Amino acid sequence: MTQQVETVTQFRQHQSDTGSPEVQVVRLSERISQLSEHLSSHKKDVGSRQGLLKMVSRRRRLLEYLKRNDEPTYRRLLDALSLRK
User: What are phi and psi of 3, to 5 degrees?
Assistant: First the structure.
């Protein structure tokens, strides 16, 4: 979780920033990785799987928004989170 805190502080726009697209992507990525780990041991948890799919599509939409409006930040975010695109 310390990596998430470091990444959030790197991308936030002000001290109490929780709503910017960059911070939302970082927080969603952390939740996605936790839920993926949970689902690896609980294969029949359909409700959590649906939640995971919703989070992944929300992160994808936020990343597409960033790519359209602020490509340098988009690239830095992909590198910092080790996401492929």
Answer: -65, -40
**Encoded amino acid at 42, one letter:** H
Return the exposure string of 9-36: e unless at least 16 CB atoms fall within 10 Å of the residue's CB, then b.
eebbeeeeeeebbbbbbbbbbbebeebe
pLDDT digits (tens, 9 = 90+) for 22-79: 999 999 999 999 999 999 999 999 999 999 999 999 999 999 999 999 999 999 999 9
Sequence-separated (6 or more) residues with CB below 8 Å from residue 28: 55, 58, 59, 62
The verdict on pTM exceeding 0.85 is yes
At 23, the amino acid letter reads: V
Q: What domains lie within the chain, and their CATH numbers?
A: 18-81 (1.10.287.10)
